[in-house]
Write a structure and sequence with these properties.
Layout (H helix, E strand, L loop, with lengths): L1 E2 L27 E4 L12 E4 L5 H11 L5 H12 L3 H23 L13 E2 L10 H12 L4 E2 L11 E4 L4 H17 L4
Parallel strand pairs: 1-2
Antiparallel strand pairs: 2-3, 4-6, 5-6
Helix pairs in contact: 3-5
């Protein structure tokens, strides 16, 4: 299964490579995508899946039991997004790129935190191991004591301990405010 929802949100001159472009896996690949990220249509719940022919009947049964159809207004909005000018998509990705740089630079200045530069989407996944905090404990404490919402890495799998996820789909002003609060918190609080 390939979730390619961030296919247009890549940086540094990179291009998205769709897994359907590999003939050797097409017969066993399920591709998921949609409009929520590229066209900022998260509330519209409009997406699609590409299934191998041999799995079509299973996909149909799944779709029939999960939903009956996408509402007409969402369908028209999706068509307008695809057929319309793509300038806003490019502007949005350029803005995310600026915020990405702010986030990575700011995270790398925090005590005990290191962050590699993400190549796509709008999330950073910094390493917090040198802070002494467990990921979920840090996420809870930052929310409760500093008003900063992050997600502990274990929520993304068993190898996520020692990492947290931050979104940079917010204003640069708010990102800098959150980084400042995180810095103050980490400088003043020992690991729980």
């Amino acid at each position: 299964m390939s979730d390619e929802i961030y296919d247009h949100m890549v940086y540094d001159g990179e291009s998205h490579v769709c897994l359907l472009s590999y003939p050797s896996i097409r017969d066993r690949l399920i591709l998921l995508n949609g409009w929520s990220k590229t066209y900022a249509m998260t509330g519209w719940r409009l997406g699609y899946a590409v299934w191998p022919g041999k799995l079509y009947d299973y996909a149909r049964k799944l779709a029939v039991n999960l939903h009956s159809c996408v509402n007409a207004s969402a369908q028209y909005a999706g068509l307008a997004a695809l057929k319309g000018p793509q300038d806003e998509v490019h502007k949005m990705v350029a803005e995310f790129d600026k915020r990405r740089k702010v986030v990575v630079e700011g995270l790398n200045k925090l005590p005990g935190v290191s962050c590699a530069t993400p190549k796509g989407a709008f999330y950073a996944f910094p390493n917090i191991k040198r802070t002494g905090w467990k990921a979920k404990a840090l996420a809870s404490s930052l929310l409760d004591d500093a008003g900063v919402a992050i997600i502990g890495g274990p929520d993304f799998g068993i190898l996520g301990e020692g990492y947290v996820r931050l979104s940079y789909a917010n204003s640069t002003e708010n990102i800098l405010k959150a980084l400042g609060r995180m810095g103050e918190f980490l400088a003043s609080r020992k690991a729980a």
